[in-house]
Amino acid sequence: MFATFGLVVNLIVSSMLLLGGSAVVNAITGMNIHAASFLIPLGVCIYVILGGLRATFKLRWCLAGIIATDTKTVETRIVVLKDWELGGKYF
User: Fold this and answer.
1) What is the pLDDT, as a whole number, of residue 47?
2) How far is 22 from 48, CA to CA, in rounded Å?
3) What is the pLDDT of residues 23-62, one digit of tens each?
4) By CB neighbour count within 10 A (0-12 exposed, 13-18 middle, 19+ buried), where does 22 fall?
5) Sign of the CA dihedral 15, 55, 48, 37?
6) Cα 32 from chain centroid (whole Å)
7) What is the average per-residue pLDDT within 7-13?
8) Confidence at 90, pLDDT banded by 50, 70, 90
9) Helix (H) or strand (E) holding 35
10) Rounded distance between C-alpha atoms, residue 16 and residue 67, angstroms
11) Counting Cβ atoms within 10 Å, is residue 82 exposed (0-12), middle (13-18) or buried (19+)?
12) In sequence order, which residues have a C-beta less than 8 Å from that of residue 23 and are 6 or more positions away?
């Protein structure tokens, strides 16, 4: 029973991510949503085949590092600049 629910949830979330990514590609480039829905997974498959699964994990690690660096930068600005103003010259 739980495996069925897990499979259904995985299918729903994957569909939402794919359709959301296709909508973003459509909004930015004007590409057809159906074409984007086909080309996004195809691009991911080609990336994994050419670079291997290791490339996927390395990219994920790099993106996590960028997010952590940005978070620390904003945190430092808030702590150091005590009289910061939201929407001021620093943000």
Assistant:
1) 83
2) 20
3) 999 999 999 999 999 999 998 888 888 888 788 888 889 9
4) buried
5) positive
6) 21
7) 95
8) low
9) helix 33-80
10) 23
11) exposed
12) 33
Rounded average pLDDT over 11-21: 93
Q: Pull the structure tokens for residue 20.
A: 């959301």
- Alpha carbon dihedral 43, 48, 54, 56, in 10-degree steps, equals 30
Q: Put residue 31 in one of left, alpha, beta given phi > 0 → left and psi -120 to 50 → alpha.
A: beta
Distances (CA, A) of 13 to 9, 10, 16, 62, 67: 6, 5, 5, 24, 23
Distance CA 6, CA 16 (A): 15
